[in-house]
């Protein structure tokens, strides 16, 4: 007994080609909306194959589309016992209510004395069953069901049956000559019935073989021979058992072969679904997801695919994915097909080859969507063969996986964008906190010194005036350098660092940088050592000049007066190395990597007692990396630091 303990309602509607099924679907949909529950539409297909005429097949496809439009999840299962399949699915899926139609005639012809409703009520007493009566609409309805193998056999199958019959009889004569018992001959004929069922897959052939084999056994191998009479009283029972065994063997073999075929198809399609999920987990872009989905639908349906990606402005240019390279798919990229795809995009419903109002389209167009957004429209070339209901269920599942994968990729990009905005916002906050005090201190000094000069210029001696002016100049230069670094940081964080690379003399760039050092390095011994005065490197001279300025100023700040600062260059292969060395206190090994981080100032005090913002070395690394080079920090034995950065060397060829 099944009892549903789930508080959320789950409505199940049973699909069929019956004309009344449309009313059932609408009723189940309305019930699901009213109860705010889940809605599933189930189609049970016999594993032996359900042969529908064209009218019933079209009606079934129409009902499946209606269920999809009503928001139902379409599920197809296989099984001979329809009530049992419905009950088992309801148990697994936690169905609380089943909605189906009722027709006494159809019910009794299909299920004997008990209708489908009676069996469901007996198998699942804990589930509410709602019957939608519509006997008038089913009077003209006739479902053509023909299990696979009941059609009149072909000549080939008849020949196979006769051959197996003759071979079995020959084996019987051989056993008789070898004095084997009659039981061995009976076993041979039963084996022949099994082989006939396996090779012909036809019930008529199996039944004919079973009946004729009993007659041949009676005629050829029982006393009196060559007669249909039998002397022993037990022979009639033997013949009946032999006939029943042969018939049962043939029927079971046919069912086994049919079930094996459907199991193989189900396994193949389920494998495609699992493979799709696995591939989508590795996809990191919408283009890859679209290519994977097209490839998987090609495998599932063996049909040409066209996909129109979509953005907030509408559909984009379509891409065709043929089943094989020999297919000519130019007809799928016509303006007419695009209009049908656009109709599917705007209506959020399937349109195209299988819909009544757009039969002229070559493709069936399905929107790949979530509740809030449509990501693309997939077109499937239909041709003369419609999509099987089970294939349709797998297809809808694949499209759902596609929608989730694209949504996940877009969410990841949105999170990345938000994280970047948050990082930039944090950067701005850190900049404001870092410069609030550092800007105020030099500005206050400049303001106070200039006010002192203006108010007491005539009362201040020449030496004091020069010192005040020197302080104003130093403070203004520090502010200029700070603003330059801030502007560079802003350009880097916003991705606006435009590099204009050209061949430049590295010696001239270093000389230009030393001019900007000015009086800051007056108390230090700054020297240069160039391996070649005409050494060329590919660079943006303005940015590399700033790198040299920052490195030299960093050495000036953190070394005492009188320290040595040496700028040297050397050429190694196709690389130019520029080094700035000092003999100051140096930097501990565990802090060497931290000095290139933004806002890192370390514990060492600057020589002028000003607090550093920690932007100079960060800018140096960013600029050098943008040039494709690398900057490193090593020890200058016995003490001090060496900052070295690399650039790509360049050569100028002169035509003499």
Please tell me about this protein's structure:
This protein is of the alpha/beta class and 656 residues long. It folds into five domains: 10-138, Rossmann fold; 155-260, no CATH class; 283-387, 2-Layer Sandwich (Beta-Lactamase); 415-473; 499-648, Histidine kinase-like ATPase, C-terminal domain (Heat Shock Protein 90, 2-Layer Sandwich), CATH 3.30.565. Helix content is 51%, strand content 16%. The protein contains 16 helices and 18 strands. It has helices at 21-35, 54-69, 82-93, 104-111, 116-123, 155-177, 182-200, 203-221, 235-282, 286-301, 335-347, 389-456, 462-493, 506-517, 541-557, 616-626; strands at residues 10-14, 38-45, 73-78, 97-102, 128-133, 305-311, 314-315, 319-321, 351-352, 363-369, 374-381, 502-505, 525-529, 536-539, 564-572, 575-582, 631-635, 641-648. Strands 6, 7, 8, 9, 10 and 11 form a six-stranded antiparallel sheet that branches. It has a five-stranded parallel sheet with strand order 3-2-1-4-5, sandwiched between helices. Helix 2 links the parallel strand 2 (38-45) and strand 3 (73-78). Helix 8 (203-221) runs antiparallel to helix 9. The longest helix has 68 residues, at 389-456. The chain is elongated, with a radius of gyration of 44 Å. The chain starts with 9 loop residues before the first strand and ends in an 8-residue tail after the last strand.
Which descriptors apply to this entry?
six-stranded antiparallel sheet, Rossmann fold, five-stranded parallel sheet, Beta-Lactamase, alpha/beta, 656 residues, disordered N terminus, single chain
The level-1 CATH class of the largest domain: Alpha Beta
How many structural units, i.e. domains? 5
**Architecture per CATH nomenclature, i.e. the level-2 architecture of the largest domain:** 2-Layer Sandwich
The shape, in one word, is elongated
Quaternary status:
single chain
Tell me roughly what share of residues is in helical segments: 40-55%
Kindly state the number of beta strands: 18
Which residues form runs of ≥5 with pLDDT under 50?
A: 1-6, 104-112, 143-148
Q: How big is the Rg?
A: 44 Å
Give the CATH H-level superfamily of the largest domain. Histidine kinase-like ATPase, C-terminal domain
Percent range for β-strand residues:
15-25%
Return the CATH topology of the largest domain: Heat Shock Protein 90
Largest sheet descriptor: 6 strands, antiparallel
Give the N-to-C terminal Cα separation. 101 Å
Structural class: alpha/beta
